[in-house]
Amino acid sequence: MDRKPNDQWLVVVNPNAGIGKCGRDWSKISKLLNQHQINYHPVFTESPMHAVDLVVYHIGKGFRKIITVGGDGTMNEVVNGIFKQKHLPTTDIITGMISVGIGNDWVRTYNIPIDYEKAIKILKNETTFLQDAGIIKYHCASNRVKRYFVNMAGLGFDGLVAQKTNFDKNRGRGNPFIYIKNIFASLFSYKSADVTISVDNNRKKYRIFSIGIGIGRYNGGGLEQVPSARPDNGVFNITLIKEMSKWSVMISLRRLFNGTIGQHKKVETLAGKHIRIHSKPSILLEADGESIGHSPVELQIVPKSVKVLINHL
Prior knowledge:
This protein has helices at about 20-35, 50-60, 70-85, 105-110, 115-125, 155-170, 180-185, 245-250, 255-260, and strands at about 5-15, 40-45, 65-70, 95-100, 130-140, 145-150, 150-155, 195-200, 200-215, 220, 225, 235-240, 265-270, 275-280, 285, 290-310. By secondary structure, the protein is an alpha+beta fold. It folds into two domains: about 5-125, Rossmann fold (3-Layer(aba) Sandwich), CATH 3.40.50; about 135-305, Sandwich (Tumour Suppressor Smad4). Helix 2 crosses helix 3 and helix 6 crosses helix 7 (about 180-185). The chain is globular, with a radius of gyration of 19 Å.
């Protein structure tokens, strides 16, 4: 039998987020939580995917409100914990974020500042919003794996950039421009792939440079790879970047900053609820900034399945 709902906030802290910034700033964040009279119970992640288990366990203990203190990857793990638990519907859990990552892309969609005190004031208002989630079935080595995401998934060049970026972060090397650095670092080694993509059973073949599949608009620290995405429209919005020269990629980067990527002649935009992607050779996959595996990939939208705290302004 489930325990009586707990009025406390579960605060899931990833000390390694932001190249260790989260651990260094936790005393400041906890002091602000206390000042704003937030009744909370903190737990600390110790390894990748630990947040999933922490969330499952504490929901079983009666917690119904969760604050993620970390980066987009930590938020991804918290959401996966919400879906993994079997005690109650996912929409009975409220989750919000104090963002202490490198990219801070999920909070951009909801205009949540990275200033800790301003973020806490927004969380305290408890203005909720039901957003979509996506479920991905993909391959990691020879294993078929399932995972949820709440912002963006990317394949191809985007997957390679995420892999390099996570490699740097795991070794303590990173800054807000790390994604841009790895875009240029990846250009000279990446080769486009032949991809078959089926969107709601509409099947096409492409020579693909990169694929962005968005619930949210932003990735890579504020780049608008899928500017048409809306978090509650019940579909994935997709940006397909077809094969282009390295020079064309470099001069087109500005379009990722101003939201005009869809106007490029080598870009096609699609939308759908169910996506299948096969490629030769296999291409790398990232979700919410985390490098997780490779194609073949299947994605399904889970509409209005995550209750999040947002800035009401």
